[in-house]
Amino acid sequence: MPIAAAAILCLVLSVSDGDTLKALCDEAALPQNLVTVRLAGIDAPESNQAFGHRARQALQGLVLDRMVALECRASPDRYGRSVCRVMVAPSSCTREPCARTLDAGLAMVTLGLAWWEPHFAREQTPQERGQYEFAEYEARAKHAGLWKDDDPVAPWTWRQEHPRPR
């Protein structure tokens, strides 16, 4: 399911972990103005997992208390979160208006603090797939972030080994 073309402007209020945030959006743009967003195309370490805290801090540094443009797919994930590409102005831009040209998900992969999820590649354009795949390849080669670990555990594997109590 492809990501929608129309971007929604929102203010990021909090960051839960390296791939999830809460944002306040224009009431006219969404049925509810407070939205939980899962960054499209990536999976960051869980909070209790190695590099989980660093991933959360990195995403906070990119988007917290900033206006972002959300490009969301039509349907939410199984937890009810909106799955979106999150675009933010680079931190080097100090005067508004700034173009939101930095893809927060791609930045997390580039920093070595998230995995690109190839099984969600169908939700990305061919250009985005290439960028994300190359960013992960480069982060691994540079031993950036979690790739410093000799054997980093993917979040999907970690979740299987540490199921949440119901």
Essential attributes:
alpha+beta, OB fold (Dihydrolipoamide Acetyltransferase, E2P), single chain, 8 strands, five-stranded mixed β-barrel, 166 residues
Question: Any overview of this molecule?
Answer:
The protein has helices at residues 52-63, 104-110, 126-142, 155-161; strands at 8-17, 20-25, 34-39, 42-43, 67-72, 82-88, 102-103, 115-116. The protein is α+β, with helices and mostly antiparallel strands. The protein has one domain (8-161): OB fold (Dihydrolipoamide Acetyltransferase, E2P) (Beta Barrel). A five-stranded mixed beta barrel has the order 1-2-3-6-5. It is globular.
CATH topology: OB fold (Dihydrolipoamide Acetyltransferase, E2P)
Whole-number count of domains: 1
Largest sheet: 5 strands, mixed, barrel
**Range of helix content:** 25-40%
Strand order of the largest sheet: 1-2-3-6-5
Q: Helices and strands: which structural class?
A: alpha+beta
CATH class type:
Mainly Beta
What Rg, in angstroms, do the CA atoms define?
Answer: 15 Å
Name the average pLDDT. Answer: 89
Assign an overall shape.
globular
Query: Cα distance, first to last residue?
Result: 30 Å
Q: Got a strand count?
A: 8
- Under the CATH scheme, which architecture would be assigned? Beta Barrel
Q: What's the SSE pattern?
A: EEEEHEEEHEHH
Percent of sequence in beta strands: 15-25%
Question: What's the quaternary structure here?
Answer: single chain
Figure out the total of helices.
4
In terms of per-residue confidence, which ranges show pLDDT below 50 for 5 or more consecutive residues?
none
